[in-house]
Specification:
It is globular, with a radius of gyration of 27 Å. The strands form eight sheets. It has an eight-stranded parallel sheet. A six-stranded antiparallel sheet has the order 9-10-11-16-13-14, covered by helices on one side. It contains eleven helices and 38 strands.
């Protein structure tokens, strides 16, 4: 699904059915293909073209430039140079892929595609030759419809599959992304098979990427059609979007393998809408899912931290493991995810992922991830680049939205490494300016050998008070035991509301004398007590917020791109002066402090979505769902939703996409109020 708010907020896709399909096909001079049989409800056979035996790695310009003027020949050649100069090629990246807007709006007199002479004055072949000269490969884009997804109306390949495929081959193209816009309602399986056959007929090896947004469950039929297939709608550069797509892709592990991969869309790492912690989670989880790794940020402007993330060779090795397994979900209770992936050397990659908004302990065991019983194991932290021994427990206190990625193996030489030590923190990280709160930290030995001369220290921003209330050192911490320390934490009286970085540092010495230091970053949130009486939520500071597209808006609808680009909140013709405008999937948290009794709102899909938009509204109190609207669409009047939140410290407003993707899911919490 190509969701392009800059072009239209109501979407650009329409499906025309029945007789209208036939009429349009005839008018456009496109031969109507036969209708394919229904796809089986199972994993399909494999394409077997010998390509993409590990998930493709490369770059695609769409998430950073879209169809802006910045997308041109100079940029593409510059990206190829960067691949070589910045170590991306050495890390395994090889495809430099062009997305939409590379072509002129009209074909030539012979029906051939014509590259945009302004963007690509020397043509696509010249670009391919340059990319190939760097030892890299070139990818290109079109759609399995009459036009591509851009609103200008660039030519699609429907009815021109063999001609277009031959042009791509003649230009030296190595990878085709085949989108799904303007498809006239023609059977997806048939359309994508036709291009498969057209690519094969060229005789050139071209990786075939099916981009039909998961609409027709391609994991059930595309294994012998393409090398990879999108499983979801488009990703956006937000935590909620990435998380929603992750959850949709994780259950599809049975369909993935060498030459046939689930594709949860391109990477957003470095585009600025998430924190570095969230971007490391994004990269970790895409890797453990054996997903294609297509960088979507403008590498000419990327930060050192972005390069550190996307060139982490130990994480990339998880993605590129030749066994080709997608990780399996072992548990996910309370947003504490354990995902394990079998590796070709018999080890296991293990992701300990914390979906929640506060630090959580996530744990499993070597046995649970599929390793045989042994006297000891080694665990390699793929972000710390350090190896430890463990008795079999695999656990970590994971920061909010963070992931600890381990590679665990049965290893007779486990004793050569220091014990794995888990640093933990408990207690409320919601604090008020000038008021003391109490936290407890733990340093727990998970290894086969004791942690000697152990210590803990807690650091906070300048001006904050931090005092240990119990011992913070121990001569020895045996296997399975902990050094536990209480701390008094006091923000300064003038501290503004918002998030502040804390850090728990644990130190210890191994039996071999190695000194080990580990750090656990956490965030404290300075909050204010809610006022007495009834208050509009749009007038109160949120503790946190996430949104599918654009920011959460106060007193306007969601305009999808930047703050302040919305319109008056309007649900079925009724305009509301107050409220929150969001885009599914969305979550907004407010501090209640145990002093509030009720949350209420008029909930509905904003009129600006036209006929689109399908969502559910939910109210949560301290991790418990206390109210839900059920599924609402654009035709529904505003739904009154209210919930008792007595005693809750945090109230959370959630909007989901109702399970059908988030195209045009503009949701309004009109007249949203908190009563305290």
């Amino acid at each position: 699904m190509r969701h392009l708010p800059a072009r239209t907020t109501t979407g650009t896709r329409r499906r025309v059915l029945g007789a209208l399909v036939t009429a349009l096909l005839c008018a456009g001079g496109v031969a109507s293909p036969a209708v394919a049989s229904t796809a089986p409800d199972s994993v399909s056979p494999h394409l077997g073209n010998g390509l993409a035996l590990t998930p493709p790695m490369g770059f695609n310009n769409w998430n950073s430039t879209g169809c802006s003027a910045d997308f041109n020949e100079t940029m593409v050649k510059g990206i190829a140079d960067i691949f070589v100069d910045k170590g991306l090629k050495a890390a395994g990246y090889q495809y430099v892929n062009l997305d939409d807007c590379w072509a002129k709006p009209q074909r030539d007199a012979d029906g051939k595609l014509v590259p945009d002479p302004v963007r690509f004055p020397n043509g696509i072949k010249a670009v391919a030759d340059y990319v190939h000269s760097k030892g890299l490969k070139l990818g290109i884009y079109t759609s399995a419809g009459t036009k591509t997804c851009d609103s200008v109306g660039l030519p699609g390949a429907l009815g021109h599959e063999y001609s277009d495929a031959q042009q791509f081959a003649d230009w030296g193209v190595d990878y085709l992304k085949y989108d799904n816009c303007n498809n006239l309602g023609i059977d997806a399986v048939q359309r994508y098979k036709t291009m498969r056959d057209a690519l094969a007929a060229t005789g050139r090896p071209i990786v075939y990427s099916i981009c039909e947004w998961g609409s027709n469950k391609p994991w059930e039929w595309a294994g012998d059609v393409g090398n990879l297939w999108r499983t979801t709608g488009d990703i956006s550069d937000s935590w909620s979007s990435m998380l929603s797509i992750l959850k949709q892709n994780l259950p599809l592990d049975a369909a993935a393998g060498p030459g046939h991969w689930n594709d949860p869309d391109m990477l957003e790492v470095g585009n600025g809408g998430m924190t570095d912690t969230e971007y490391r989670t994004h990269f970790s989880m895409w890797s453990i899912m054996a997903s294609p790794l297509l960088i979507g940020t403008d590498l000419r402007k990327a930060s050192a931290e972005t390069y550190d993330i996307v060139t982490n060779k130990e994480v990339i090795a998880v993605d590129q493991d030749p066994l080709g397994k997608q990780g399996k979900v072992l548990s996910s209770e309370g947003g504490r995810w354990v995902v394990a992936k079998e590796m070709a050397d018999g080890s296991r990659a293990v992701a300990l992922f914390n979906e929640s908004d506060s630090p959580q302990r996530v744990s499993t065991t070597a046995s649970a991830v599929g390793l045989p019983e042994a006297s000891g194991y080694t665990e390699r932290d793929l972000w710390q680049h350090k190896t430890y021994n463990t008795a079999g427990s695999l656990s970590a206190t994971v920061p909010a939205h963070g992931t600890v990625l381990l590679r665990v193996a049965q290893d007779p030489k486990w004793a050569a490494y220091p014990s794995a030590v888990e640093s933990g923190i408990s207690g409320s990280l919601l604090v008020q300016a000038g008021k003391a709160s109490t936290l407890t930290t733990t340093v727990t030995d998970q290894g086969r050998t004791p942690a000697l001369q152990a210590g803990a220290s807690l650091s906070a921003p300048a001006g904050w008070g931090v005092k240990a209330l119990s011992k913070a050192t121990a001569a020895s911490v045996p296997t399975g035991e902990s050094l536990r320390t209480s701390w008094r934490l006091t923000p300064p009286a003038g501290a503004a509301t918002g998030s502040y970085d804390l850090k728990l540092t644990s130190t210890y010495r191994s039996l071999t004398g190695e000194r080990v230091t580990t750090e656990l970053p956490v965030q404290a949130h300075v909050v204010v007590a809610p006022p007495s009486g009834s208050s509009y939520l749009s007038d109160l500071p949120a503790v946190s917020s996430s949104n599918g597209w654009g920011p959460v808006e106060k007193d306007t609808s969601n305009g999808e791109t930047k703050a302040g680009d919305g319109s008056p909140i309007t649900i079925n013709g009724i305009v509301y002066a107050k409220g929150l405008g969001v885009h599914a999937p969305s979550a907004v948290e407010y501090y209640a402090g145990g002093a509030c009794s009720n949350v209420s709102a008029q909930a509905g899909v904003d009129d600006e979505t036209g006929i689109k938009g399908t969502v559910t509204f939910e109210i949560w109190a301290d991790g418990t769902k206390v109210a839900s609207t059920g599924v609402l669409t654009n035709v529904d009047f505003a739904h009154s939703i209210s919930a008792d939140v007595s005693g809750a410290q945090v109230v959370r407003l959630v909007v989901t996409d109702a399970g059908d993707g988030n195209d045009s899911d503009h949701a309004d919490w009109a007249d949203a109020k908190l009563s305290c």
